[in-house]
Amino acid sequence: RREPLALINLKKKNEETGEEELASRLDHYKAKATRHIFLIRHSQYNLDGRADKDRTLTPLGREQAELTGLRLASLGLKFDQIIHSSMTRATETTEIISKHLPGVKKISTDLLREGAPIEPDPPVSHWKPEAVQYYEDGARIEAAFRNFIHRADAKQEEDSYEIFVCHANVIRYIVCRALQFPPEGWLRLSLNNGSITHLVIRPNGRVALRTLGDTGFMPPDKITRT
Question: One Pfam family this chain carries (predicted)?
């Protein structure tokens, strides 16, 4: 999933055909399609819930999810799949969004659950998780980035459009990593509930950020960041 040349065992190169065979094998590994990644932050949820199952969407959160689903549907794109965090607020957001995208398969994963990806720089006074949380969550969130954010498979012929419904910390970290920005700066980004972040991954591996935390499709009185 990286540079095609790195995927070839050069020791097995045929000495007689040399560069011609190498070029042929490189074509076999080169991506042809572009991936469009839509990162959706879950809607507003009940902050008073003690356990994850109690942190359900608020009535406003359900409205936000409806608006996000309508916005995604209005783009007229053929979405391939919705991959979502297994946490309650992300699952509920996905269920509402998916009503507006009939036929798009949904996949739940623990990799995209909320957490502390890496110690932020500069530090903040209002949020200081235990150091061990960075090691536990950070490895998982980095694994999510490596697993989901990469150029298209060489077998993929057409451009793809994928939705990921997860959490602010996860999205902010992924954006920094994808753009090759210092990941420690993730907490400097701010995302509204139900917002849409659009990453584009070209066949050559270059990444562009089309939108970050877009909620322009929501009325001002429906916008929150909790």
Answer: His_Phos_1
Report the alpha-carbon distance of residue 162 to residue 37 in Å, rounded: 5
Sequence ranges of the chain with CATH classification 3.40.50.1240: 32-220
Residue pLDDT, tens place only, 32-61: 999 999 999 999 999 999 899 999 999 999
Domain 32-220, CATH among 3.40.50.1700, 3.60.10.10, 3.40.50.1240, 3.40.640.10: 3.40.50.1240
Which pTM does this prediction carry? 0.91
String of DSSP letters for 22-72: HHHHHHHH---S-EEEEEEE---B-TT-SSGGG-PBPHHHHHHHHHHHHHH
| Residue 5, both tokens | 């040349």
